[in-house]
Amino acid sequence: MTDDRRLRVALLGAGSVGSQVAALLLTHQDELADRAGVALDLVGIAVRDVDAPRDADLPRELFTTDAEGLIVGADIVIELMGGIEPAREYIALALNSGADVVTGNKALVATHGSELFDVADQVGATVSYEAAVAGAIPIIRPLRDSLAGDRVQRIMGIVNGTTNYILDRMDREGSDFDVVLADAQRLGYAEADPTGDVEGFDAAQKAAILASLAFHTAVPVDAVHREGITAIDKTVMDAARGAGYVIKLLAVCERLEGAAESPTGEAISVRVAPALVPRDHPLASVHGANNAVFVQAEAAGNLMFYGAGAGGVQTASAVLGDVVSAARRHIAGGVGVGESTRANLPVLPIGRVTTRYQITLDVSDEPGVLSTVAGILAEGRVSIATALQTVITEANGESGTARLVIGTHRALEQDLSDTVDRLAASGVVDRIVSVLRVEGD
Ligand code: NDP
Ligand code: HSE
User: Among 166, 193, 202, 286, which residue has the most ligand 2 atoms within 8 Å of its CB, making it the best to mutate?
Assistant: First the structure.
């Protein structure tokens, strides 16, 4: 049944996502009213330049540069401007004015989420952010609501489409990083300055959000260990392929046991890095700019969420889902779903993580070298699971160097990294080609 009130919806931003949200709010008005149980009136759209061209055909009279005037008096405020300020200030104003807030702003949620959730709690409103992680894919609500009765053990996510596009093409076509990055920029996946994507900053923000929800712990973004993909070249790709893996930039959030600093022994690790994924793992078949989040929960087992991680209209779907929920709550009253930080688990540094690794080395092809390498690994408490040696022959037919690809059993990251330092200083290693974690086996 539809309530006879009408809710005033204010939109901040009409870029790639905001313009599509506005268009859907206007064209699907009746359906949205039916689902929300109340009519949703888009009362205005705040932008910087009211005359700028828009991706969708939207009524000019809705546009304003007076964001604050629009916010005060709104029942639901949708923030799709991006950035920290003035988005943070506007969201705080909206909450303090009695509105529920919907945002897709991962940078803001990852860095100032706790502060905004506290304001929302104090005033009895909600901040929803389904679009902030993996665009169109429902993952925030599944973690917060659907899995609320379960215990999440690990999340492995491909949460950045740009880097997945780059790595996928490097893997499938044998292309070079720079060539594929230029294509990604031309196609609009990567920005002119690709740092946020290729150095893992974007994925780290999303990892912090996912880990906070999954482990009921406020995870600051600077607690996320982050490595980008710029060191992945054709040689590293070939070594991965040869060993039966594909390289993906993964956001890994996992529950760890046995931590002395935690009263229960439980702690978490949150990391973003290029990792080797076995070719038969569901994440290995995530191609192009798609995203996927693989969740392992104690009772539910393995779950995979897959789809478009970006795109204006795709992301608008996630935003509108939040708008409908916010509208229902606004009408029904009662407290919203606040942030759960009850577990407050310590986030361990990367040195305390245990995984399998693949180490690729170029060594002198001389008697005793393999045994020296094996000895250094043994001293460092790193156990060899597999080893493959190939003699490298130069174009002039000469050799003298061998490539060693060593797969390890599970080892402590600190031991592994100390061992790699010793290998580099050993005199028998010409070059450490790559050291990658194996995830998901
Ligand atoms: P755009 O850069 O395309 O659009 C930003 C919009 O905000 C523009 O309309 C701009 O106005 C407006 N704006 C910026 N600053 C101000 C300001 N100070 N006052 C008023 N208006 C302002 O961003 P997107 O649509 O791509 O992204 C929006 C949000 O959604 C971001 O937080 C992003 O991280 C998130 N997101 C985006 C995805 C995507 O695929 N694009 C996917 C998932 C999340 P004007 O047009 O006049 O310059
Ligand atoms: N730059 C992001 C990506 C956009 O490549 O996935 C969505 O957050």
Answer: 202
Residues 152 and 128 in one domain: no
Evaluate: CB of 310 within 6 angstroms of ligand 2. yes
DSSP letter assigned to residue 162: H
Take residue 309 and report the two structure tokens written for it: 């991680």
Question: Which pLDDT band holds residue 398 (cuts at 50, 70, 90)?
Answer: confident
Is 20 a residue whose pLDDT tops 80?
A: yes
Nearest CA to ligand 2 atom 8: 310
| pLDDT of 1 higher than 90 | no
- What is the average per-residue pLDDT within 103-117? 97
Task: From 243, 275, 309, give the residue that closes a domain.
Answer: 309
Burial 363-377 (b: 16+ CB within 10 A, else e): bebeeebbebbeebb
> Which of 81, 90, 133, 313 maximizes ligand 1 atoms within 8 Å of its Cβ, making it the mutation to test the pocket?
81
Q: Are strands 6-12 and 76-79 parallel, antiparallel or unpaired?
A: parallel
Ligand 1 centroid to 313 CA: how many Å?
A: 13
Residue 227 C-alpha to ligand 1 middle, in angstroms? 26
Is the pLDDT at 386 greater than 90? The verdict is yes
145 and 288 together in one domain: yes
Domain residue limits at 245: 140-309
The number of domains in the chain is 3
pLDDT of 143 > 80? The answer is yes
Going by C-alpha positions, the residue among 334, 314, 349, 332 that lies closest to residue 161 is: 314
Question: Does residue 86 share a domain with residue 62?
Answer: yes
Q: Is the pTM of this model over 0.85?
A: yes
Distance CA 394, CA 388 (A): 19
Indicate the Cα dihedral angle 261, 266, 271, 276, nearest 10°.
130
Could you tell me if residue 26 is inside a domain?
Answer: yes
Residues 325 and 375 in one domain: no
> Is 402 inside any structural domain?
yes
Whether residue 256 sits in one domain with residue 166? yes
Closest by alpha carbon to 249, among 273, 265, 225, 267?
A: 273
Phi-psi region of 258 (alpha: psi -120 to 50; beta: other; left: phi over 0): left
Residue 404: beta bridge partners? 361, 389
